[in-house]
Design goal:
566 residues; alpha+beta; 5-stranded antiparallel β-sheet; 14 helices; 54% helix
């Protein structure tokens, strides 16, 4: 079986060309590996920064709760009623103090507040009228009691002897005229905080100065040494100010960074394959043209030789053949001219085939690149990843439009406001979200926009805002029987309002209040930054982005922008 033409052409390559081809392949693979590591490192940096921000927020919330409760025993230690009840204890007086502690506990949301005498016996407590009352229990053996006696203030995380529930005990000594008369204790439990941590994608816990886990959503970890972070996860530890030896630990999977690296490597590999295929195809065409030119030249050489032989033979013929000889010469001249025209026409035809073939070869891989970029954009949420993949999509769209003689997105965001065509920005955003619209089978209604209508903004960033709102609308109607998304314009003189609304389930009050709060999101894989960034962009334009609460069904977002006077 005869090998294919391309294989035969490769076999004809010289050693030098084979070495260059091998070097090109190695360089291409090295670029793919480099693209993976660059994208992975950038995504990992973003994840690490996100982990640090999340840890700082949790540390701040924990410190705030502890600081609020720390003030309670200090204030009660100087309370005249508390001192009087300790100096002259009576049942009625201590019951009044217990009632006071109960009221204060409701206001401060602590677990329990109780008063110990100088021997460590509880004489009053906020749970005084409950079966689990602390009144009468002895706590002189507790470290928070002995430390408060020695150092005025103390803190201890331990299990309650009555409730058997873990919590932080904050204590403050009660002193009058330099004499210890008792200790005020507040117990702080972290059930709500631990429940919130359990719902998040990160693993968070707090260790004390003995490096034992004390606050965690996993009960089997408590009062044990913390497990080491898995090798594929990012780990971070921050000190909790005001609590000696306390540290908050946060673990998060680095899978998103690996996915970003693989996506970048796959896209670059596809581009390299496309480029290599195009170069090999063009090289094969050139080889065919060269072989055909050689064949034509051989034909012309044989023809000239035959004509010369015939002319030489006719030279000795009868004079009557002179006219025939002249005619043959004229025919040869015409034949040469026709051959030249034929060669030129053939070159033009082949050039047309090459151009059409290149366009066909480019358009098919471009469709694949676009699908992969859209898939990568749907799976990854850190802001840095999203921006990179959107840029890839724009580049793919731009190349596709060039091959189809369509207009493309060719300029980067300048960060400055300028007169911007509303029609071009809307068309661009619809083009970028077309695959999402098509996959969800959404009925999309939009107005006809005057090409001369302009607003103050910047096209690339305005498209980013519209793409974000359209994607949210398409996602909101996924489970609706007849999904519909509408884009409307309202001209209000100096202001133009772009309104995007859907017939989805709408925005509950709790979600509406958190729409523009960073990192607040209802999407399992979302970061909660899309609407925040969109509102900041519109604000830079001198406009406003808001969610309309006066909607019976679905959701409605309004982008108000300054019009450019004609």
């Amino acid at each position: 079986m005869e090998p294919p033409t391309l294989v035969k052409a490769l076999l004809r390559l010289s050693r030098r060309k084979l070495a260059l081809l091998s070097l090109s392949v190695l360089i291409g693979l090295a670029l793919v590996v480099a693209a993976y590591h660059i994208a992975y490192d950038r995504a990992l940096d973003g994840l690490t920064q996100d982990v640090r921000t999340s840890a700082q927020l949790r540390v701040s919330a924990l410190q705030s709760e502890i600081d609020k409760q720390r003030a309670v025993p200090a204030v009660l230690a100087s309370d005249s009623d508390v001192k009087a009840a300790l100096q002259q204890p009576t049942r009625s007086g201590l019951d009044l103090i217990s009632a006071k502690l109960e009221s204060l506990r409701h206001e401060t949301h602590g677990a329990v507040i109780y008063l110990l005498d100088r021997h460590g016996v509880a004489v009053a407590a906020s749970n005084w009228n409950r079966p689990e009352s602390f009144v009468g229990s002895a706590y002189g053996f507790r470290r928070y009691f002995s430390d408060a006696v020695r150092k005025t203030e103390a803190a201890e995380f331990a299990l309650g002897t009555v409730s058997h529930r873990p919590g932080l005990f904050l204590s403050h000594s009660v002193v009058t005229e330099g004499r210890l008369i008792g200790v005020v204790v507040v117990k702080l439990e972290f059930d709500s905080l631990e429940s919130d941590w359990a719902r998040l994608k990160d693993t968070a816990f707090v260790t004390d100065n003995r490096h034992l886990v004390i606050i965690t959503a996993r009960d089997n970890w408590r009062f044990k040494s913390p497990p080491a972070a898995p090798p594929d996860q990012i780990s971070l530890a921050l000190d909790v100010k005001g609590m000696t030896g306390w540290q908050l630990h946060l673990y998060r999977s680095a899978a998103a960074a690996r996915q970003a690296g693989l996506a970048a490597a796959a896209i670059l590999l596809l581009i390299e394959v496309l480029l290599a295929g195009t170069i090999l195809w063009a090289w094969r065409r050139r080889e065919n043209l060269r072989l055909k030119a050689q064949s034509d030249q051989a034909y012309l050489t044989r023809l000239e030789r035959d004509v010369g032989d015939r002319t030489h033979a006719l030279r000795y013929a009868n004079d009557k053949l002179s006219e025939e000889i002249e005619e043959r010469r004229n025919a040869q001249t015409r034949l040469n001219e026709l051959q030249a025209d034929l060669v030129q026409a053939n070159k033009l035809a082949q050039l047309g085939q090459i151009t059409a073939g290149v366009a066909h070869e480019i358009n098919q891989p471009l469709a694949t690149i676009r699908v992969l970029a859209d898939n990568a954009l749907s799976g990854l949420k850190p802001a840095a990843i999203q921006t990179n993949l959107e840029t890839i999509v724009r580049m793919s769209e731009r190349i596709g439009h060039i091959t189809g003689e369509l207009r493309a997105f060719s300029r980067k965001a300048t960060g400055e406001s300028e007169p911007t065509s509303v029609s071009e920005a809307v068309e661009g955003s619809i083009l970028l979200t077309h695959s999402r619209l098509k996959s969800h089978k959404v009925r999309f209604q939009r107005p006809k926009i005057d090409a001369g209508l302009k607003v103050w903004g910047e096209r690339v960033r305005l498209e980013q805002v519209l793409v974000n709102l359209l994607q949210n609308a398409f996602e909101a109607v996924e489970s609706v029987a007849s999904p519909t998304v509408t884009l409307r314009l309202e001209d209000q003189g100096d202001t133009l309002r772009l309104i995007i609304e859907d017939n989805g389930p709408g925005l509950p009050e709790t979600i509406r209040k958190a729409l523009f709060i960073p990192f607040k999101t209802t999407k399992p894989k979302g970061l909660g930054l899309g609407l925040v960034i969109a509102r900041d962009i519109v604000s830079d334009f001198g406009g406003e982005l808001m969610a309309d609460s006066d909607v019976a069904h679905g959701a409605r977002f309004i982008v108000s922008l300054r019009k450019v006077s004609p």
